[in-house]
Design a protein that fits this description.
about 550 residues; 24 helices; 2 strands; about 0% strand; membrane; GoLoco_motif; phosphoprotein
Length: about 550
């Protein structure tokens, strides 16, 4: 017997629940090929397929299918489904950096949830709102500023994020949902951190840690310890930071996660550098180096060599410092790390003078180093190390933070539905009214992107001669008429125009740029964090290289 649309969709749902999203997509696509007249099943397929594509980082496809879900749920008057589709759209738009459109979707989600008296829906919408403003703030951070010292546009976005997270917490406490509280505390702590409210950040992360322990969530516990360590660094509490990083290291080893184990070693090495305990710093940087080599992480290996060269220089071990500086230079060239290459060249030159070797650093490079602001990924960074001529050209901390904190913000992402329901139209909160508008504004051009039987909703069967109810035929007729319409609601169209401007004709969005951070390097490039937040303290620790006699 030929499998039905529902059978194929249920198998797709099962595969997604176990993390096999590619296989899940295949079954959902097959379900649409078979087609169905059951609008609830079709809505669920769209929602699940959009979520699966989201997890596969195919955000254009995720938008397409969440948009289909939105169109269908609006037409059939399924307000709960519309709210959830709005949530999903908002999450996807957030990842793509289209924050104004994401806000429209979040507002629609929140409005419907309030109208329905749905407390859980309200909390999810508020959480999504916080995530959008948090991501917006990070996306426009500049790397030359410290937490709490960003442009007003950034601070405004981060304050809004904090307000929405606080509102979410109020509802989650009322509902006694401790797991949800934990996720929000983690994101709230990260937001306070960027606002420069380090004590508040620590209070939030301590709550996150407490709840993670309640649930035995060692991954969340490890992240909380890392976040606590980062806040302690900015507060100048280096011993306490080392304690937190040590606990993070222990948990990483329990989890048998080599990449995060290396990250903890890297953070510990730099913390002990701040404490002027260079022997221990070298020990942890060597541990980081070994894991980076095992994981073939050349970027992480370069960071480790750079850190080891600096620590050996501080101890006067110039031969060993030269070995690591030359290795850092080699890796920087190989990986195209321009600022790292310039830094390594200066370090090698200084060490050559100390060791009485020939002066081989290219003078034009030295001149370039003295005159330029290092530019990496569009961010200007200018810092000094080891005396007046030694430039530290690492990526800025906040440039890295804005791009690479995704693994700490996993809680923002839409998830496949839990096991309590099968193929409900529910998916993670956050996206809808906008794509309704988008579909109408773009009209039939979207049809070129869609697979299906010739109508604008793939998988929707037109009624056969044997179809039974007239009411069902009326609903299907409304769906078809709605999706073929060329004029949207005036209210939604106005919002869309304000958000999209001249981009109405764009049907596809490029995904975010791939991460250039090595897997063994923490989200925050720790050395840049140290140099920016502890410049005076580092001046006292630096070793001035003796001149050649």
């Amino acid at each position: 017997m030929e499998a039905s649309c529902l059978d194929l969709a249920l198998e797709g749902e099962r595969l997604c629940k176990v993390g096999d999203y590619s296989a899940g997509v295949s079954f959902f696509e097959a379900a649409m090929q078979v087609g169905t007249e059951d609008l609830q099943v079709l809505s669920a397929v769209y929602s699940q397929l959009g979520n699966a594509y989201f997890h596969l980082h195919d955000y254009s496809k995720a938008l397409e299918f969440h948009h289909h879900d939105l169109t269908l749920t609006r037409t059939t008057g399924d307000q709960l489904g519309e709210a959830k589709a709005s949530g999903n759209l908002g999450n996807t738009l957030k990842v793509l950096g289209r924050f104004d459109e994401a806000v429209v979707c979040c507002q629609r989600h929140l409005d419907i949830a309030r109208e329905l008296g749905d407390k859980v829906g309200q909390a999810r919408a508020l959480y999504n709102f916080g995530n959008v403003y948090h991501a917006k703030g990070k996306s426009i951070c500049w790397s030359g500023a410290e937490p709490g010292d960003f442009p007003e546009e950034v601070m405004t976005a981060l304050r809004k994020a904090a307000e929405y997270y606080e509102a979410n917490l109020c509802i989650m406490k009322e509902l006694r949902d401790r797991a949800a509280q934990g996720r929000t505390y983690g994101n709230l702590g990260n937001t306070y951190y960027l606002l420069g409210n380090f004590r508040d950040a620590m209070a939030s992360h301590e709550q996150r840690l407490l709840i993670a322990k309640e649930f035995g969530d060692r991954s969340a516990e490890r992240r909380a310890y890392c976040n606590l360590g980062n806040a302690c660094i900015f507060l100048g509490e280096f011993e306490r930071a080392a304690e937190h990083y040590m606990k993070a290291l222990q948990l990483a080893r329990q989890l048998k996660d080599l990449a995060v184990e290396a990250q903890a070693c890297y953070s510990l090495g730099n913390t002990y550098t701040l404490l002027q305990d260079y022997e221990r710093a070298i020990d942890y940087h060597l541990k980081h180096l070994i894991i980076a080599q095992d994981l073939d992480d050349r970027i992480g290996e370069g960071r480790a060599c750079w850190s080891l060269g600096n620590a050996h220089t501080a101890l006067g071990n110039h031969d060993q410092a030269m070995h690591f500086a030359e290795k850092h230079l080699e890796i920087a060239k190989e990986t195209g790390d321009r600022s790292g290459e310039l830094t390594a060249r200066v370090n090698v030159s200084d060490l050559q003078m100390v060791l009485g070797l020939s002066y081989s650093t290219n003078n034009s490079v030295l001149s370039e180093i003295k005159e330029i602001d290092y530019n990496l990924h569009g961010t200007a960074v200018k810092q000094t190390l080891h005396g007046s001529t030694d430039m530290l050209g690492d990526e800025g901390f906040f440039d890295l933070l804005s791009r690479f904190q995704s693994n700490r913000m996993d809680d923002q992402r839409c998830a496949i539905q839990d096991g309590r329901s099968h193929l409900s139209s529910a998916a993670s909160p956050g996206q809808e009214p906008f794509l309704r508008l988008l579909a109408s504004a773009q009209g039939r051009r979207l049809d070129e992107q869609r697979a299906g039987t010739g109508n604008s909703l793939p998988g929707l069967r037109t009624l056969s001669e044997h179809s039974s109810t007239s009411s069902r035929q009326m609903i299907l007729s409304q769906v078809m008429a709605s999706t073929d319409a060329t004029e949207p609601d005036d209210q939604f169209f106005d919002m869309l125009v304000k958000c999209q401007g001249s981009r109405l004709d764009d049907q596809r969005w490029a995904p975010p740029p791939p991460s250039t951070r090595g897997p063994t390097v923490p989200d925050e490039d720790f050395f840049s964090l140290i140099m920016r937040s502890q410049a005076k303290r580092m001046d006292e620790q630096r070793v001035t290289l003796p001149s050649c006699r």
